[in-house]
Amino acid sequence: MTSTVATAAAARRGFFGRLGARSGYVLTELPIAIARFVVLLPMFLLGIATAVTVIGLPILATALRVARGFAYIDRIRLSNAQGWPARRPVYRGRPGKTWFGRAIAPIRQGQCWADWGHGVLGFIPALVGFVFTVTWWAAALGGLLTFTWLWAIPRDPGDQQLAGLLGLGDSYQAELIVQTAVGAVFALTLPAVVKATAGLNTSLARFMLTSDRVTELHGQVSDLTESRDAAVSAEASALRRLERDIHDGPQQRLVRLAMDLSSAQRRLTKDPNAVQPMLAEAIAQTRETLDELRALSRGIAPPILADRGLRAALAAVAGRSMVPVDLNVDIADGVRFPAVVENAAYFLVAEALTNVAKHSGATQCSVDVSQETRGEQTLARVIVSDNGIGGAHTAKGHGLAGLADRVRATGGQFAVSSPVGGPTILMAELPCGS
Predict the structure, then answer these.
(1) Taking Cα atoms as reference points, which of 337, 342, 331 lies closest to residue 304?
(2) Closest listed residue to residue 38, CA positions, set 120, 128, 130, 124
(3) CB–CB of 89/11 below 8 Å?
(4) Kind of pairing between the strands at 365-374 and 424-431
């Protein structure tokens, strides 16, 4: 968020604002670079020299921690000067299990070494940039303001001014024109020079400190890992719930049915008249078991979803809801989302409506499903709202936690708004590809 604000602020700067920011960045970079150099290099050399002893590695790790602190300051300055989102890279490395391992952890972190390298190597572009920037600013301002100081310079008959060297004479007017012209040339080239010197500093800093591409890849890996964990969690929860439902319902009915049929078989030869009601009851139990198994199968893979699509499947879910549902599916006819997206949307609506009926106390709910194009990506947006008592949240152990995991497993986003007193609004955005 800080980087975004800095980027927006930099974009609003005008020509002189950018020139001033870059000049300030280059001019202040040298004293900071000197401080980095005189602190980090001796600490590093001391750590290397004493590495054969116990204190060498902690000294080296301390040098890297100090470099990390300097790098944090440099990233802030980089964002403010250039408006680049200098994101903080990920410091990866084994943390260590003992206090000594944790103390020397920076030695195992590649980004810490990159921070130290910038702290030492950054002195060179900082010095070059400072010299050129000061020279161009001094020449530009001094030349354009020649009329304020040229009259005060003592002039001896034997002195030869710049105008005289150029063969334009040694008069005051000629010298004033030449000096002003030189200042104008430096002033015209000043923005390009300052931009180049700032770029010389920031290119090294951005390469070694921000690692934008590496950070982006790490972020993608983290997102994929989170999606995978969410998928595993969602499937595990679904399997546990299915196992519990089968154990508590159809399994018990089937056990009783087997016992009743065994009893009927034993009585068949002794008392045939008593078998008839037992068979009738067994048939009723069989039908109830089949109905319960059909209900459970809808939580696994509803055939209507695969055969007729999301619109028909959601209509069937809404029709079975105990709470009146206002269903609005804004999807073009014939459009089918990827199977994983349709399954996630279906289960999201089905489980959300179940939660509405069980916990919300609502008298009305609505389901809105739409297709949205954002950039090059197509999204399926699902919104479920009700007029119940509210208070829903996604904490672990609650029904909405499974919905959140199911959505994240597709790489989507899930949000809940449910203040006490209602209304409750669930929103999910499921990526459908480009």
Answers:
(1) 342
(2) 120
(3) no
(4) unpaired
Residue 2 pLDDT: 40
The torsion defined by the Cα of 106, 111, 112 and 113, in degrees rounded to 10, comes to 110
User: Which residue type is seen at 201?
Assistant: N
Domain segments of the chain as ranges? 1-210, 224-296, 304-431
**How many Å apart are CA 425 and CA 404, to the nearest integer?**
13
State pLDDT tens for residues 38-67: 999 998 899 888 888 878 888 888 888 898
Give me the residues paired with residue 325 across strands: 365
Question: Distance of CA 320 to CAs 202, 232, 264, Å?
Answer: 62, 29, 37
Cα dihedral 261/266/268/273 (nearest 10)? -80
Instruction: Give me the residues paired with residue 416 across strands.
Output: 426
Q: How many CB atoms lie within 10 A of CB 237?
A: 15
Token pair in block for residue 298? 């809808």
Cα separation, 403 vs 416, whole angstroms: 11
Residue 130: pLDDT band (50, 70, 90) is very high
Q: What distances in angstroms separate CA 234 from CA 169, 229, 401, 404, 425, one per listed residue? A: 89, 8, 9, 9, 21
Identify residue 92 by its one-letter amino acid code: R
Cβ pair 422, 388 in contact under 8 A: yes
**Dihedral, CA of residue 58, residue 62, residue 64 and residue 65, to nearest 10:** 130
Q: Which CATH superfamily is domain 304-431 in?
A: Histidine kinase-like ATPase, C-terminal domain (3.30.565.10)
Q: Say how many C-beta atoms besides its own lie within 10 A of residue 102's C-beta.
A: 12
d(CA 300, CA 149): 88
Q: Cα–Cα distances in Å, from 53 out to 44, 65, 99, 110? A: 15, 20, 17, 23
Q: How far is CA 400 from CA 123, 238, 408, 410, 423, in A?
A: 54, 13, 12, 16, 15
How would you write 105-140 as a 3-class SS string? HHHHCHHHHHHHHHHHHCHHHHHHHHHHHHHHHHHH
Tokens at 52, concatenated:
């054969």
Helices (H) and strands (E) in the chain, counts: 16, 5
DSSP state of 416: E
How confident is the model at residue 7, as a pLDDT? 43
CB 402 within 8 A of CB 238: yes
Give 361-396 pLDDT, tens digit per residue.
888 899 998 888 776 778 888 899 888 888 877 765
